[in-house]
Design a protein that fits this description.
It is built from five helices and six strands; from the N terminus they run βαβαββαααββ. With 151 residues, the protein is of the alpha/beta class. It has one domain: Alpha-Beta Complex (Ribosomal Protein L13p, Chain: A), CATH 3.90.1180.10. Helix 1 links the parallel strand 1 and strand 2. Helix 3 packs across helix 4.
């Protein structure tokens, strides 16, 4: 057997082909949507996935205000943040956060499923979330993505 003919392909920034996808979040469950979007952002659905390279695609999520949470999560779940000052801990529920910033709930869910390092921060820049059905990325000609086709 000729083992020299088998070459391991490792993707880099120049060889990666990035696509644009658009996802409609209307009536989608938040966690399931976030896990599938994180997989696409990371590039794990591609045959040339390389763990240390940004080989994922750009994703646009529209209708983030119409996302769905199952059970009592809309009122029972809590989001914690801290201002950095003494006594500066702030606690919010998804219900109150959806009224102020509906796209923040979707962004937080996706951030939680990306790596917590420099690569994860770069991958998050490939995500664009909009509360309504309109977005300014028509020039990129995004393809509509059906989340039920992603495993």
């Amino acid at each position: 057997m000729d083992t020299l003919s088998y070459k391991t392909f490792s993707a880099n920034r120049e060889t990666v082909q990035k696509n644009w996808f658009i996802v409609d979040a209307q009536d989608e469950v938040l966690g399931r949507l976030a896990s599938k979007v994180a997989k696409i952002l990371r590039g794990k659905n591609k045959p040339y996935f390389t763990p240390h390279v940004d080989c994922g695609d750009n994703v646009i999520i529209v209708n983030a205000e119409k996302i769905r949470l199952t059970g009592q999560k809309m009122t029972d779940r809590k989001y914690f943040r801290h201002t950095g000052r003494p006594g500066g801990q702030r606690i919010e529920t998804p219900e109150s956060l959806m009224q102020k910033k509906p796209k923040a709930v979707v962004e937080q869910a996706v951030i939680g499923m990306l790596p917590k390092n420099r690569l994860g921060h770069k991958l998050f820049n490939n995500l664009f979330v909009y509360a309504g059905p309109d977005h300014p990325h028509e020039a990129q000609q995004p393809k509509k993505l059906d989340l039920n086709t992603i495993k």
